[in-house]
Amino acid sequence: MENSTKLRGWLDNFDLNHPLVIAGPCSAETEEQVLKIAHQLKNTDTSVLRAGIWKPRTRPGNFEGVGSLGLKWLQKAKEETGLMTTTEVANPIHVDLALKHDVDILWIGARTTVSPFMIQEIAEALKGTDKTVLVKNPVNPDLALWLGAVERFYKQGIENLGVIHRGFSTYDSSEYRNIPEWQIPIDLQNEFPDLPLILDPSHIAGRRDLIFELCQTALDLNYDGLMVETHYDPDNAWSDAKQQITPETLDKYTIDLKVKNKVSSNEDFNYQLKKLRTKIDKIDENLVDLLVKRMQVADDIGKVKKEHNVSILQPERWKQILERMISLSEGSGLQKDFILNVYKAIHQESIAHQKNIK
Ligand SMILES: C=C(O[C@@H]1C=C(C(=O)O)C=C[C@H]1O)C(=O)O
């Protein structure tokens, strides 16, 4: 699959002057609930109504969705409000039912994206249709697996495509339900700048107080849209109660969010930017120069170690270096994790250099 402006055709057709907003409840619960939320969203920035019909839950015994009955409610909501509709499909039976009920956009959940078998079956079921398909990232941070799923749809002739960033599972404790790992969607944009990228802040956050900041970060990173779980009574929602916000809150957020431009034609801005970027270029040259010099010393250390049959890894020295660099950077404004990551990468390269000593 090659990058192409065709990929974003479906999004351009909305002709919006703001990011695409997809909103609606985590799960369709009752006909009244779906219709009430749809009407509350009608006069906001929302263009597409979302609702989960089949809910893949981590453990059995929780509410698993109302099933195909809910598709009729989505259809009714579309008729009454003019909003487009979207739901998650996880197998060809879901696809068939969604097509029969005229769902406009289908999304693929994170747990489905991990399985090329399932994706292939769903993609084949969609062959020959003009539906838009949005692929959520897989639960594990694997860009190739994410893009592989998109490619399977593309190969079946589906050209209206997009991706949804919903964060990645982690066993470590984190303030997020699913850690964002922003570098992965940044890498994705590098490879496919015209593949629409949508943030799902609800599943990253897992709690409503983080949603606004996540949306703002996405807009700072050129995302094309937001998919936000909304419910008129979030605390009593049948699923994901902690992460849903009301349609009124969403409306306020979309007003407060700052939409950024990719570039500016302001001459003064462009002059300042150019000057500052020249400074960055110079600093980067110095950084590479220093890294080369550091590796040359590591090579010398490697040679003497080899002559005296001493192991490459020296845990005590390595620990000292890390502690020293963390203490040196204290109060500098650099995050401790950043220093750790930079030095871990330098240490790895230093070991690789020493291993190469002949
Ligand atoms: C360079 C050395 O070898 C390894 C690499 C280190 C480094 O690059 O700073 C530190 C400790 C060792 O694990 C050394 O022993 O000093």
Largest sheet: 8 strands, parallel, barrel
What is the third-level CATH name, the topology of the largest domain? TIM Barrel
CATH first level of the largest domain = Alpha Beta
Portion of residues in beta strands equals: 5-15%
EC number: 5.4.99.5
Keywords: Coiled coil, Transferase
Domain Chorismate mutase: 267-358
GO molecular function: chorismate mutase activity; transferase activity
Salient structural properties:
14 helices; 8-stranded parallel beta barrel; binds the ligand C=C(O[C@@H]1C=C(C(=O)O)C=C[C@H]1O)C(=O)O; alpha/beta; TIM Barrel; 2 domains
Describe the structure.
The protein has 14 helices and 8 strands. An 8-stranded parallel barrel has the order 1-2-3-4-5-6-7-8, surrounded by 5 helices. The model has no long low-confidence stretch (mean pLDDT 96). It folds into 2 domains: 5-256, Aldolase class I (TIM Barrel, Alpha-Beta Barrel), CATH 3.20.20; 267-355, Chorismate mutase (Chorismate Mutase Domain, subunit A). It is an alpha/beta fold and 358 residues long. Helix 6 runs parallel beside helix 7, helix 12 crosses helix 14 (336-355) and helix 13 (315-329) packs antiparallel against helix 14 (336-355). It has helices at residues 9-12, 31-42, 69-81, 92-100, 110-113, 116-126, 143-155, 183-191, 201-205, 211-220, 247-256, 267-307, 315-329, 336-355; strands at 20-24, 46-50, 84-88, 105-108, 132-136, 161-165, 197-199, 225-229. The radius of gyration is 24 Å and the shape is elongated. It binds the ligand C=C(O[C@@H]1C=C(C(=O)O)C=C[C@H]1O)C(=O)O. The site of ligand ISJ has 11 residues, from helix 12, helix 13 and helix 14.
